[in-house]
Design a protein that fits this description.
Strand order of the largest sheet: 1-2-3-4-5-6-7-8
Largest sheet: 8 strands, parallel
Order of helices and strands: HEHHHHEHEHHEHEHEHEHHEHHH
Distance between the termini: 28 Å
Strand content: 5-15%
Structural class: alpha/beta
Radius of gyration: 19 Å
Number of helices: 16
């Protein structure tokens, strides 16, 4: 289902109803929240204010980024910290008019916090329910396993795929972390157990490593969606496979640029992936750490990556279709969004700045 339009403004982009499927909770912690959590938990940080935070979060390598991410992780100690993190995330998503999001988080980071995972999830769900009741924002959870930390993979997979966890909003099992030297094949058994229990695989692949990593991930884990997958273009047979088997790609443009996967927006392959026929959903990945938003990703996609407003709207609708919502909710949300796309085009102010491609 497509909704078309021309001469669309930044106002239109901002007010579009949105979904996001590739978003890490740990990458959404605002500087003020991190400072508050550190104060609450009596932790020392290498910065004292927002300006110090912004100077710290500049990366020359994936390791620099990982260290910045882990700084925020270190401040998540108690159940109330996780509840506050979800509230903080929810506020940011509501400003972007995101109506539905599937949020990845990494339980392995918190196994030594002194609280069982179900207690942390319960705290997250307290905030999730408040956000839905107050603002209509729907959130679901994708706990992930770290490729370079296979020690607790079975424990996390078994917990995530339990009936209690799935009833508590967990909709898939992710796999993140460095691809090189950490093949997905080593996680085949825990992901098979999860899949047999009804929890699909939603791993990262084709970001820090190339097409061979995507093949390994597909063959080993049988995913329904792929995080990133942007280097799939290195292999035309792989691209054909993704299209034929309808495996959507969660593309995070600014993340790829900031981490050096591609040198600039103009050379990012998102446009090539779409023109080749791949199903693409645009996302932010870690919006605070990359200083971006979903609206900003859409605008950059149009102004610097060669996308059209049709591509943006199709990406949003593909996000609904590729989500782990049931089919009735997908159909309802798709209709609501398309109706809203049409209404917004009629109502956006005529004097709003029109987006121009560079």
């Amino acid at each position: 289902m497509e909704c078309s339009g021309q001469n669309i403004s930044t106002d239109y982009i901002q007010t579009l109803p949105k979904v996001e499927l590739h978003l890490h909770l740990e990458g959404t912690l605002s500087p003020n929240l991190i400072l508050n959590l550190a104060d609450r938990n009596r932790l020392r940080l290498p910065f004292q204010d927002v300006d110090g935070f912004e100077k710290l979060y500049r990366y020359n390598s994936f390791k620099d980024f990982s260290n910045a991410l882990l700084l925020g992780v270190s401040c998540l100690r108690k159940p109330e910290d996780f509840s506050d993190a979800v509230k903080n995330l929810g506020e940011a998503l509501i400003k972007e008019n995101v109506r539905y999001a599937e949020v990845t988080w990494t339980p392995q980071f918190y196994l030594n916090r002194g609280f069982p995972l179900h207690i942390l999830l319960e705290a997250m769900n307290t905030a999730r329910k408040e956000l839905e009741q107050r603002n209509g924002l729907q959130l679901r959870w994708i706990p992930d396993i770290v490729r370079s930390r296979p020690q607790h993979a079975t424990e996390i997979a078994n917990w995530a795929s339990s009936q209690a966890s799935r009833d508590a909003g967990i909709v898939a099992l992710g796999l993140g972390g460095p691809e090189k030297g950490n093949p997905a094949a080593q996680f085949m058994k825990p992901f098979a157990r999860a899949r047999n229990a009804g929890l699909p695989a939603n791993p990262h692949a084709g970001e820090g490593a190339g097409a061979e990593s995507v093949w390994d991930t597909i063959n080993s884990l049988k995913p329904l969606r792929l995080g990133h997958g942007v280097r799939s273009l290195e292999d035309s047979q792989l691209v054909n496979y993704l299209i034929q088997h309808k495996i959507p790609l969660e593309v995070c443009i600014t993340s790829n640029i900031r981490l050096g996967i591609f040198s600039n927006y103009e050379t990012h392959p998102v446009n090539d992936l779409i023109r080749a026929g791949c199903s693409v959903i645009l996302n932010t990945d870690d919006p605070v750490l990359f200083n971006t938003s979903l609206s900003q990703e859409y605008i950059l996609g149009i102004t610097r990556c060669g996308l059209s407003i049709n591509d943006i709207e199709k990406s949003i609708l593909t996000g609904i279709k590729s989500s782990y919502l049931d089919e009735n909710n997908k159909s309802q949300l798709t209709k609501e969004f398309c109706d809203e796309f049409t209404r917004l085009k009629l109502n956006v102010s005529a004097d709003s700045r029109t987006l121009q491609q560079h």
